[in-house]
């Protein structure tokens, strides 16, 4: 049985970003116009007027200050309020593959690997740009990787479940070097006309190389994280849903089928699931939570993340121990915890532990115990 390690990560960040102020200005302009257009119905009491959004609410409720997006103008334009991106021709690279190739190249460079050496490509993300051919097979071809490739979706937990799938393939010898990517175009599943959630998500792509420990050692890779143990859990819930799919293309209002959540219920129900999952993982491996150098958590919401770390550690740690990137990136679904790890791991010393943890729709949650070489 081979021992799987993470030998590199990569990150693609879109060039364009939207501040809370820009987002709120656009939303409030839409509210003003809609209320003006419906003035008679509102006056007759037939419909309620739309309420404005606010920068103060967004920052306080979520900790988000800005988000990166692939297509800013059409999101802020009140006549579209969605990322309007030209349909790519069959001979062109898809948007998801394009982002993933960029993130993957950084990871391959760090891991001192050629793309041809990769023998499994996994796309793990919460939305796929199309049903088939698999985006992973397109990436495999674009990079020139060998072996096989497939797509998988466990919503915000896609990356941890993807790493677990990759590690299992390495352990049993099905693959020796895996590229796992998380191209998340979350702006596409967001209803920017819904005040409750218009601020939550951003676009990004992360990449992770998982391989046999002996191969990474042979190439003298400086920073390698040994995958010590995992815990994955799913528990069905209707509280976070995206109902948009191939069976509702004729829906009256497709926007209403996009992301929706019962935010308070999610908060209340998911925090204990995640805190218990992490605690059980640490207990079973005899690792004291205080000795963990970093908890790279899914970047859902500042209050949720802080409560989870507080439950595990008994106090609020500094930003290196539980790094927050959602202020700049917002919630990027499966990519969030990997961004946190990518940006905040250089302080780990040899034999230090880190926990990579995801949680989200399903419900689904995953925690991975990592040990630095
Ligand atoms: C796990 C995942 O990644 S899923 C995606 C992210 N989801 C999560 O992080 C789940 C955790 N949930 C949360 O963090 C929170 O529920 C949030 C941030 C989504 C919302 O914060 P809450 O404090 O719960 O706000 P809530 O929806 O209850 O609204 C509070 C008030 O603010 C109002 N409000 C809602 N949106 C806005 C807005 N954009 N601007 C101003 N006011 C607003 C509401 O109408 C409500 O008003 P009321 O008290 O008069 O009824």
Describe this structure in words.
The protein is α+β, with helices and mostly antiparallel strands and 373 residues long. It has a domain of 148 residues: Peroxisomal Thiolase, Chain A, domain 1 (3-Layer(aba) Sandwich). Helices cover 34% and strands 22% of the residues. It is built from 12 helices and 13 strands. Strands 5-4-6-7-1-8-13-12-11 form a 9-stranded mixed beta sheet, sandwiched between helices. A two-stranded antiparallel sheet has the order 2-3. Helix 6 links the parallel strand 4 and strand 5. The longest helix is centred in the last third of the chain and has 22 residues. The radius of gyration is 21 Å and the shape is globular. The mean pLDDT is 96. GO terms for molecular function: 3-oxoacyl-[acyl-carrier-protein] synthase activity. This is Beta-ketoacyl-ACP synthase III. Keywords: Acyltransferase, Transferase. One of its GO terms (biological process) is secondary metabolite biosynthetic process. It comes from Aliikangiella marina.
């Amino acid at each position: 049985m081979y021992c799987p390690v993470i030998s590199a990560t990569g990150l693609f960040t879109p060039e364009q970003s939207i501040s809370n102020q820009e987002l709120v200005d656009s939303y409030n302009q839409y509210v003003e116009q809609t209320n003006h257009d419906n003035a008679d119905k509102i006056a007759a009491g037939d419909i309620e007027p739309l309420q404005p959004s606010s920068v103060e609410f967004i920052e306080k409720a979520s900790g988000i200050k800005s988000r990166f997006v692939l297509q800013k103008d059409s999101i802020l334009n009140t006549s579209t309020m969605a990322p309007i991106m030209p349909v790519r021709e069959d001979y062109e690279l898809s948007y998801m593959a394009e982002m993933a190739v960029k993130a993957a190249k950084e990871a391959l460079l760090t891991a001192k690997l050629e793309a041809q050496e990769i023998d499994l490509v996994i796309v793990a993300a919460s939305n796929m740009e199309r049903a088939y051919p698999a985006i992973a097979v397109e990436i495999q071809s674009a990079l020139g990787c060998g072996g096989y490739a497939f797509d998988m979706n466990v919503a915000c937990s896609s990356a941890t479940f993807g790493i677990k799938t990759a590690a299992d393939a390495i352990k049993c010898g099905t693959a020796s070097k895996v590229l796992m990517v998380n191209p998340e175009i979350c702006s596409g599943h967001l209803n920017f006309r819904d005040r409750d959630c218009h601020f939550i998500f951003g676009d990004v792509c992360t990449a992770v190389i998982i391989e046999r420990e002996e191969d990474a050692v042979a190439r003298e890779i400086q920073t390698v994280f040994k995958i010590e143990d995992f815990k994955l859990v799913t528990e069905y819930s209707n509280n976070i849903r995206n109902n948009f799919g191939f069976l509702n293309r004729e829906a009256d209002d497709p926007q209403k089928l996009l992301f929706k959540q019962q935010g308070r219920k999610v908060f209340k129900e998911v925090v204990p699931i995640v805190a218990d999952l992490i605690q059980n993982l640490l207990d079973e491996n005899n690792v004291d939570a205080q000795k963990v150098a970093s908890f790279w958590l899914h970047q859902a919401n500042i209050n949720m993340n802080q409560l989870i770390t507080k439950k595990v550690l008994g106090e609020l740690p500094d930003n290196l121990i539980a790094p927050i990137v959602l202020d700049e990136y917002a919630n990027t679904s499966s990519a969030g915890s990997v961004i946190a790890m990518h940006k905040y791991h250089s302080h780990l010393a040899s034999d230090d532990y880190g926990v990579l943890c995801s949680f989200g729709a399903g419900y689904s949650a995953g925690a991975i115990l990592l040990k630095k070489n």
